[in-house]
């Protein structure tokens, strides 16, 4: 009686609401999971337990894709710990301190690094967090602001990068057309991703913040003035402070990151058949991102250990001791990811896909309002991603629906805009959701309290999301990216400048 109805989304909504109210994510997710299991089992006690733990939690942890992501995270945690113990991160912090003299420069450097690491959002979050944390600390950037910069250059960059695990995933979801070609054509219409990048640059160069982020930045400024430490509750603060090699140089950070990028690209293309004769682009489109990232990260880890041993910044025992410590640092995000995957399994079993499909198909069947379809798809994708905490899961639901709506005209510009709206809405909802895997990774990368990251990022995500919604409304009628893209960027900048003026008028003394 609860399947294929609005009840299928209630467990996720309950978990999100509790997380925002209680500021505690583990129990909130678990309560949502239990409620979803109870709905599925019609509140049978044994049925609820079986569905939650066997179908949900154990099923999620035995899924090959999820296991691959967990292994990838563990290996990344080990690499980050190795780079820290080798003194690479500290050396980069010292180098950056000499060359980046301002808070604006530190923010722009963080954005630039986030844009450069476009292979995968998980990789982006943890790498940028590790590399830029010392510089952010030095320039007085709050952990909340760093987490936002990391999160906003992870999914938004990956979803508009043709060579990325995201492009490969999306290309495989488009039915009836060349998926990679559709992905490339959709890039100029991915308003949320482009406007998020525009927003970061405008805020950094305009030297202003608003909402909870402004409070976090002002608090950080007071902490620096009073020489007090900034506490970040992530789980990693319980770990012992590791010894750092005094022999570390910038190359001990830069080279492993370059090796990791190269190996991940090769790993992704290998799973797509590059070494069996497939073209580079085709191998990316056909790649298995979970397996490819495991291949790449493990090979990069081995090369990094050999590099550290050869340059004698770490001994073999020190390298081996760093591996389990890196795993420990990843336990909190893996814990939350496991619950998030289980919650998604609950909503899936309640028929969330069929429920949403029915809503969208009833909308798209009315030809008189087809021009508003991109805006509608954007909102629906946002809602699904917010409730489930996954962009890719949202893409898997929405993109085939958008493709099916244009079976007779697969090359139309409105179809391209609609598919782009599905991607943009998925990223937007993912950014707003406290159970999102990339949001969890951004919190871990910046060593920021997770709920603080969600609450400070939310006003920024809503600003870019609402602006993107307006852009999809007029894009559905104009259907020309040459006109729509510049207008969207100008609109975003105009909205931010208006907010800045409002904030200045409210608090003139603090500006």
What's the helix and strand layout?
Layout lengths: L9 H13 L2 H16 L4 H17 L2 H22 L2 H12 L3 H14 L4 H18 L4 H10 L2 H4 L6 H7 L7 H8 L4 H16 L5 H15 L24 H21 L8 H6 L3 H23 L4 H34 L2 H13 L8 H16 L2 H14 L8 H20 L4 H10 L3 H29 L2 H26 L5
Helix pairs in contact: 1-2, 2-3, 2-17, 3-17, 4-7, 4-16, 4-17, 5-7, 5-14, 6-7, 6-8, 6-12, 7-8, 7-22, 8-22, 8-23, 10-11, 11-21, 12-23, 12-24, 13-23, 14-16, 17-22, 18-19, 19-20, 19-21, 19-23, 20-21, 21-23, 23-24
Could you please describe the fold and organization of this structure?
This protein has 511 residues and is mainly alpha-helical. 75% of the residues lie in helices and 0% in strands. The chain has 24 helices and no strands. Helix 3 crosses helix 17 (316-349), helix 5 (88-99) packs across helix 7 (121-138) and helix 19 runs parallel beside helix 21. It starts with 9 loop residues before the first helix and ends in a 5-residue tail after the last helix.
Key descriptive features of the protein:
24 helices; 511 residues; mainly alpha
Cα-to-Cα separation, first versus last residue: 56 Å
The helix-strand sequence is HHHHHHHHHHHHHHHHHHHHHHHH
Mean pLDDT: 81
Looking at the chains present, what oligomeric state does this protein adopt? single chain
Rg value: 22 Å
DSSP helix fraction: over 70%
Contiguous helical run count: 24
How many E-type strands?
0
- What ranges have pLDDT less than 50 throughout 5 or more consecutive residues? 225-240
What is the molecular shape? globular
Largest sheet properties: none
Sheet/helix structural class: mainly alpha
Beta-strand percentage range: under 5%
